[in-house]
Fold these 2 entries.
Entry 1:
Amino acid sequence: MAEIGKDIAKAKAYLEKGDLVGIPTETVYGLAGNALNPDAVAKIFSVKNRPSFDPLILHTYDLDSVGHFVKQIPAPLRSLAERFWPGPLTLLLPKKDIVPDLVTSGLDTVAVRVPDHPLTLGLLGVLDFPLAAPSANPFGYISPTKASHVNDQLGEKIPYILDGGSCKVGLESTIVGMEGNQVTVYRLGGLDIGKIENVVGKVEVMAHSSSNPKSPGMLKSHYAPTKPFILGDLDELIAEYNLKGRRFAILAFRRYFPQISDHLQIQLSRDGDLSEAAKNLFAAMRALDSLDVSVILSELMPDVGLGKAINDRLKRAAVPEAGNH
Ligand code: TXA
Ligand code: MG
């Protein structure tokens, strides 16, 4: 198992040797390596069991440092960075040659973000390279929002996890780039589109296209528990699965189901607060996935604000494994 601690100097030493370290961010935990060292980047793909055609996000200390890695920043994207970094926003920008092709899977754009977590910003501040970091989960599984999640799944394969507590946003960053002159969202995430539109006006959303995805994170089946995950009306699903005699667990937005025992149900936010629901989502999916049940029943959130990003993850979790895993 990995060592878990808050020691930035230790994390730095491992990263400088080309080893990988689990890092906290405000969205989810990352599996980080030196982005300018192709051997470290190759380790990321192998530890995660991730196909090499799925590019990584470069994490940097601040907006100024991004200039080392990209040729230019289109004006609307710069406005977004100024407004929302550090924060759950990733920008797709034209890359400079210094960024290894392995990081970008050969694309001529690189995904960049400045994460909002004091430990990881402290770490980035003492490193003289940026960090490539995908979410620290095996490819296709639910993203980790606690150090223990990372340790459970990747602890055998990495030496150290920087423990920054529970992620306060709980959903991966929103990925934004340009299609010509049009600001375009490629992955719904922790930064609500309404906030982006307040800065740059109407955006295009390409996050739901399924054919030839530009962002492989748009693969339909992703963020998926190992148990079948069924979405629908919970009253109907409960009746149906009771009839079938199946042992099930429930992931609800806010409603409590008195006829179901407490340990078999989780409410994402009893107050109906979508930020709280987002923060709790992945830990709840993991907890239910570990129960002695054969199926997880769930429902969609209200399709507004962060609810849209939560619903995106719920729908991908519900795609059968045989799909596009
Ligand atoms: O919140 C986050 O973004 C977390 C934390 C750790 O920062 N990271 C994360 O990384 O979610 P990952 O690797 O799980 O998802 C990154 C997504 C992938 O779907 C990838 O396809 C997309 O970003 N991506 C990366 N570079 C890209 C590029 N140049 N063009 C299009 N999509 C890109
Ligand atoms: Mg991921």
Entry 2:
Amino acid sequence: MRLSLCEAVPYNGRGAAGNRPCGAIDRPDARMPNTIFVLNGPNLNLLGTREPDLYGRATLADVEKLCRTTAQRFRLGMEFRQSNHEGEIVDWIHQARAESTAGLIINPAGYTTTSVAILDALHTIAAPIVEVHITNIHAREPFRRHSYVSRVARGVICGFGVEGYALAIAGVAAMIGAKE
Ligand code: CA2
């Protein structure tokens, strides 16, 4: 059986110009990556319940809704998760190695500055990675400025409050050529 380019070359989600099989932008296709992972690190389950001056009043459930609505605008599905355990986040990153993954958005929270394990796992992801922080980590204590995750992130968004998650999804959509 003869394979056309679009059958032989799975879309890699990076949206490289001139290397996009099948006119993926114009014709949504079941074979296109269509799922965005949004991963949240430790203590973000407390969002909206403490320190509202710093992190705002939106709860993590509100953030999930915002992400879901935003992903739907681009006809993308979403896996939204939070964990207080480093190994669980590493396992989820491994799940995101699936060909169906269009992008991975991560707020590593306290693991931002410490986790080589999360960095190593992210290194195995082909889809674009965007790092999100609710606060402007550069305007806070100096120890918050160093991020292991930034080494593999295609983009970093910080200081826009929870709206940063929606910006990150729109950013991933632009990177992979998904249109509203
Ligand atoms: O600004 C961000 O999104 C952070 O990733 C949040 C982390 C912090 O360690 C990073 O430096 C910046 C802290 C997440 C803790 O979340 C809470 C939310 C509400 C109440 C208490 C903690």
